[in-house]
Amino acid sequence: MFNKTRRRIVFTVVFSLLILMAVTLTTIYVSNRIALQNENEEMLKWYVQLFSLEEQPNGNEQRPDFKPDDKPDDRGGKPGPRDDEFGRNERRFQLSTFYAVVYSGDGEVISVNNGNNALQSEESLLKMTDSILKSGKEKGRNGNITYLVDKRDGYTLVAMIDGTINNDNQIILIKQMLIIGGAALVVLVIISIFISRLIVKPLEENDRRQKRFVSDAGHELKTPIAVISANSELLRRDAGDNEWLDNIDYENERMSDLVKQLLALSKAENGDIQKATLDFSKLVDGEVLPFESLAFEKGKRINADTEQGIAVKGNPNQLRQLVSILLDNAVSHGTGDTVELTLKRERHNAVLTVKNDAAEMSADQLSHLFDRFYRADESRNEMGSHYGLGLSIAKAVTDAHGGHISAAYKDGKAVFTVLIPIEKK
């Protein structure tokens, strides 16, 4: 139980860190990409405004005295105020690689500037600009290329800026962040394992003390119960039968049954049991037989459907007790006249299901069914050997065998399902 708790703590920490890392990296990547795209578009605007067929800019010109958002027509040939943003990006503007392809009015290529064949050949630029013009878009991205189409008197300019280096740098940055983040994640996993042990240790120690108390109390109570029984027998011989001695014997037997269940619960929870490969199908059939007569006495019947040849590794005594508890619970507390038991193989598990008609149970009641001394009907004054420990023992036995037990309420029936791992051949 506590191992599962530790694993859940570690899983929660690791999952949270992975989500945080993914969100952080995605945010950095997207914001970086948007920022670079905006900068490329701004520099393309400057490049287009500086462009002329007679003297094509290559990024080495002096900084222009106009706003990047100004159009040539708006400026009327007069310089505007200095642009501080351009001043900050002047060096990047000079180091960037620009391409330009000029088309005449009838679609013929007038000029091609491929940036001194830096990263793109003239042929690849012509293919790219041809597809850009066919798309009808005035600006956008094509792979690592950001483009801007500017239609002028007598010709059309397709200006481009190459972002390959920036994109490659961004990918390198992301890779380095992933490596560093992965290393940090490993360290944090180790720390979370250590912290989870510190968190669970007091709970584990408290649970250990409770189990030790139950075991010790059970063993200590066996002696006075035996003494009471012996003294009652001696008194009966001298005084004969009477209602007071009958009450003493009855309550003493109830106490003896309770102590036996407490010891069985303690033994199951400790998990220190001997296991062997056994035929679970035969074991279940063997437990059904004695309960058929008990069910008959109460006007009920047991419909059993067991798949044969299912083998599990476990303790036969505890597994018999598990089946017995579920059948006794169904026969004793079921409201109908039929108890259904099925055993089948599903993937790597033996699935034991016990169904019986029952009064409606809420989700809160179902969640507490396997608690010690819990009874779904709090107003019931149960006579006999039912103390609310049976299902707790069933859960402890199931856990000790690496299985899982659950309770549900469906279509007016209480359904108990037990999964036990099948022994691998």
Can you describe what's shown?
It is a single chain. This protein is of the alpha+beta class and 425 residues long. The chain contains eleven helices and twelve strands. The protein has two domains: 2-168; 273-421, Heat Shock Protein 90 (2-Layer Sandwich), CATH 3.30.565. The chain has helices at 2-50, 72-75, 84-88, 90-95, 122-135, 164-239, 243-270, 280-297, 316-333, 363-368, 390-400, and strands spanning 98-104, 109-113, 139-142, 145-152, 155-162, 276-279, 301-306, 311-314, 338-346, 349-357, 404-410, 413-421. Strands 2-1-5-4-3 form a five-stranded antiparallel beta sheet. Strands 7-9-10-12-11 form a five-stranded mixed beta sheet. Helix 1 (2-50) packs antiparallel against helix 6 (164-239), helix 7 packs parallel to helix 11 and helix 9 packs antiparallel against helix 11 (390-400).
In short:
With 425 residues, the protein is of the alpha+beta class. The protein has 11 helices and 12 strands. The chain folds into 2 domains: 2-168; 273-421, Heat Shock Protein 90 (2-Layer Sandwich).
